[in-house]
Amino acid sequence: MKNSGIVVIAALLLFSACKEKQADPVLEAQYLIEINNPANIELEDFIVDVDTIRLELSDVSVMHEIKNIHIMGDRYYISTWDHATVYIFDSRGKYINKIMDKGNGPSEYISVTSFEVDRVNKRVILADNFSRRIFVYDENGNQLNVIQLDFGPIIILPYEDGFINVYSGPRHEYQNPEMENYNIHFLDSQGKFISSAIEIGTPERIDIGSRFKTDCLENGEILFQPVLSDIIYKIEEGKKVMPLYGLVNKSSKHKFLSQKDKETFEYIVRIGDDKKSQPQEKESEGFLLSWGSVKDLNDYVFFAFGYNKKYYLYYSKSLDKSIFIDIERVKGDKNLVDMFFSSPKSIHGNRFYISPHPLLIDQVKDQLPDGILKTFFENTHDDLNPVLISFSIKFPE
Description:
Elements: E1 2-3, E2 6-11, E3 31-35, H1 43-46, E4 47-54, E5 66-72, E6 75-80, E7 86-90, E8 95-99, E9 114-118, E10 123-128, E11 133-138, E12 143-148, E13 155-159, E14 162-166, E15 182-187, E16 193-199, E17 214-216, E18 222-224, E19 231-236, E20 240-249, H2 259-263, E21 266-269, H3 278-284, E22 294-296, E23 300-305, E24 311-316, E25 321-326, H4 334-340, E26 346-348, E27 351-354, H5 358-364, H6 372-378, E28 387-393
């Protein structure tokens, strides 16, 4: 449907697990996490234990901008925006190998549309929506198996001896009609459909990509947050799905979308006009939008919110307290704030990993305060490969 250059990408989103539980499904979650008014924090009091990693540059390891990072054991598995390559480095950035099987052959993918690691079985899982296949590699990047599917995979996660296909987007044509109405599709080791979980009430729903839509935990469990949902589900062994975290709004500055708003939500992309999209309008009215971004750390749970603006929510498991951060309110050196609160490429254990764009580094390195980052950037000017910065947070008590 088109109207004045505005394209309606998709609409009518339902997010709860079962229709009969729509009255107040958040309260069924095992843990309730409060969203409070945005905190006004000092950067230096919040960011701690900063480390830097230089990724080795060679003829075979030349990289462009990093898209995503998974950490398995003492290795980094890094994908870039060419949708074709996964680089493998050790914990200090020494190059080990790369996966680059792009092509039209029987053991080659057209484009990597899903990338995950299997920490339980020490495998790398790639999926190609175009050729409808899953590609399985060992931890060193050697291909083990190519699995043909009868549908286009969206996000493929390792699960027990098989896989999960995570689907929260616009209508696709599945051969099995049951797959059409659910977020989670369980597959066996050969990619054959077994069963589904987390029903959606309408066949059309919005597809807003998120790097942290899912989170594969060390024990093989998986977290999943449907788009615009206030509930984070845990998928346990044996295909048991339970609401683990529920988000409760205690903020006087932000509003939650009502269930009716979610059911009629329209995701609109502007094309050559000055009209706002519905997400922009809702955000300007004070609504807090969740695109399904959650990471479960050792000591904390991390959430990202926002369409044009960025908001982060940290929940301390030990303290049973949360802190909601509006990045524009963070005090401290603006260059450091922009860097540390850029979208993380990975979150693992209790560490966040970012990779500032080389142009940003060139712009800010001379303006940074004296310290580990300024020294590091001053010594990386001849190295064109991306760099990694890792850090932890100090939760204010």
